[in-house]
Amino acid sequence: MKGQSIYKEDLKMECERVQYYGMMYLSWSWLEQEGAPTSDVRVLGKLWRAYAKEKIAQVRDMSVLTAESQWMNDDLFVPIELPPGNKGRLEEWMLEHTYRLMNNWESEFLHYAASMTNTIHKGKLLVGISVVPKEESKGKENIWYKASKAAILHGQSSGSMERSLKRNALLRLLNQQGDLYSVYQPIVSLSGGLIFGYEALTRLKDSKWFDGPLPLFQFADTEGQLYALERIARERAISGCFGLAHKQKLFINVNAHIMESPEFLPGQTKSLLEEQQLDPKHVVFEITERSAITDFNAFKRAMDHYRNQGYQIAIDDVGAGYSSLQSIVELRPDYLKVDRSIIHNVNADEMKRHVLYTLQDIASKMGVSIIAEGIEQEAELELLREVGVAYAQGYLLGRPRPFLN
User: Fold this and answer.
1) Which SS3 state, helix, strand or coil, does residue 138 take?
2) pLDDT the model gives residue 266
3) Which end of the chain is more exposed for a tag (fewer CB within 10 A), N or C?
4) What's the pTM value of the predicted model, to 2 decimals?
5) How high is the mean pLDDT of the chain?
6) Is 124 helix (H, G, I), strand (E, B) or coil?
7) Which InterPro entries is this protein grouped with (predicted)?
8) Helix 87-102 with 4-11: angle, nearest 10 deg
9) One-character DSSP codes across 157-181
């Protein structure tokens, strides 16, 4: 927060007639510590008040904080003067700037409390924000109460600010779709050394809120947005695939739960493929999160539906989970992708070699091909050739990268 002019510049919003009232809520939640005297709570409460007053005073002159901050017990409410604007964008601004302002306050205050009491304490800073319409007819006190109540509800659990910011970041990805792109890692035939296909891997341009694609997809799942995110990732995988040769395959990761959804329309995928002059026979759906499969018979019927259109099926991370063998038997995939936990140092580990030989034997009897993942050493590659593994993938054979248009 560098001042009112920067604040207005950051918002970059079209003016509207509606005036809004903002509120920040700050409360310190102490975690119970065995043997801690009751007097400690009172002392810590006084320390929190002193610390918070000092921090608010430091930022008041260089921010949009008003002079009407109020305490209710040890809860601090800080009103914010907001210009006319769009409520959603005002909330987003308040979230980002409040988080930036108070990002270090929790650890800072714990250090301060420890230095003043010679005791290490445990606690969490609860922070919430709200933006409510500034309806003059309701009176100043009623607006203050409404904004305070909404801010308390937002900040009642630890980490609510960060979750809200992650939610906003996810929605921006879903709406703008500009920060999501695909890279492609080659899958090599061990019999001839040619590239058999590529696995499309989702990447983020900005890792501020999600440290890689896995946390992003996990968060989208908790928010009920997994289907929407996977659809965009699938679109990116197909639209970025400029260099696929005639007989090469494009492996696309698909969550098992998504494939059972009626929203998963293969016709949409087919339209995208046609734009790239590709066909379903070029595509392998790589099934992840097999634990999400609750009805294997229904899932098999869905797989048969996609196979009838020309798509193939691969089971990912074979050997890494308890459900792998059941998935192989029930789904009868076209490819088994053996997890890198089995492949890593397989040449030097007798038990891993036994597992690999067993999987190769199962695959051979089923008439399916094994793809070994995570190859990083020549010795691993040589062992895979000896076993008779058909395909391999890993940094030794090629790193993920975009196709060049």
Assistant:
1) helix
2) 57
3) C
4) 0.81
5) 85
6) strand
7) Cyclic-di-GMP_PDE-like (IPR050706), EAL_dom (IPR001633), EAL_sf (IPR035919)
8) 130
9) STTHHHHHHHHHHHHHHHHH--SEE
